Each structure stands twice: as structure tokens, then as C-alpha cells.
Predict the structure.
Amino acid sequence: MGGKAWKPEELETLQQLAGDVPWPRLTYLYNQGIVQRGYPKRTETAIRRKCNQLGLRVACQGEWVNAGFVCKLLDISYESVRGWILRGLLPAKRFGDTRGNRYYFTRTDLRKLAKAHPRLFGGYDVAVLTQLLDDERIADWLASQQLPRLFQPKTVICIETGKRYKSISAAARDVYVVPKCIYDALDKPHKTSAGYHWKSDPTRTHRRRAAA
């Protein structure tokens, strides 16, 4: 037997939140608002199931985005983004108490970072910058600076398959792990990621300069 049927106002509230707020916060914000209007409290499982049924995006790509989204879009390592956080350039928030929770950022803070440190976003076209910042005006301004790309992708090779990847992010997507897993296993014969050993491509030299 299923639970209580969802009312139109409940579905509307869920549609407004899904994809716009971090998933760890969605259940809390949904219940906080909907219960006050006399509707039943929903479990995280029930909310996730309803999102799947409605085809709603669970991954946060609204005002909030996570570190994985930034890494994938800019094709940079998790360590690069984490460096922005540790240096105080980009405010980040984790929801929950476990170490596995992702870092989340607001688009507002990403736009502030772009305006204060444009060199971090050099070498990207307007489409990529607009998708990241959700602001075409700032994206146009950054692209017009014609700044060189600060973070050059590190080409890597899977030792077992011999397959060469243009970046750590590309390799991670192909073997279904997060980029940090490959980064941690890179050039370490005793360590694997996704069951494979990894090494830097000796035929290409990349420069990774410190951010301004």
C-alpha cells in the first residue's frame, strides 16, 4: 500500500525546491514549509521517490551548486576547487555531519569570485561561463578579457587498459568515480582507483600556476 496521496500544493512546493537547493536540505525545507500549511510530513525516501516519478532533478544546479558540478564544467580537479575554499576565496557549506557530504556554493559567491579573481576563469568560452555563473553579462566580460587558462588539464593513462585521457575529470567519468579518487591514485603503484592503476602522461607537460 502506498502512503498518503500528494496534493497539488505539495507537488508545487517540491518542484520549486528540487534542483535549486542542496539535496541534504531539501527534505528539511520541504517539511518546514508544507507542514505549516496542514500537509503531512514526508520522509526523505518518499520525497526522492516522488522526484524520480516526476522527473525532477535531484542534483543541485539552481542557486546552489556542488563542487562536482564546478569540477566537471571547468574540467579541473577537486583539489583545485578545494584550494579556493581553503584560501578563503570561495565560501562553502556542507549540510550534515558526515565527512562524505559535498561542498556546496551559491552562484552569488561564484560570481563574486569571478569578479575578484578573473584569472581563475580564463580560457573558457561564454557558454561554459554562463552555465557556471548563471549571468551572461559577467560571462561576456570574463571572455572578453582573453585571459589564458590557469588550470591546464593533466593528461593521464590507465595502466591496465593503456587508454589515455585528456584530463583527470574525463578519466573519472569513464570509470564512474569522482576525480579525487584518480587524483589520489595517480603515480602511486600501490594504489588503485576503480580497480585500475593510473599514471601521468609522460608525453605531455602541463603547467599549473598558482591562482592570483
About this structure: The longest strand covers residues 64-66. The first helix runs from residue 8 to 17. The two ends are 59 Å apart (CA to CA).
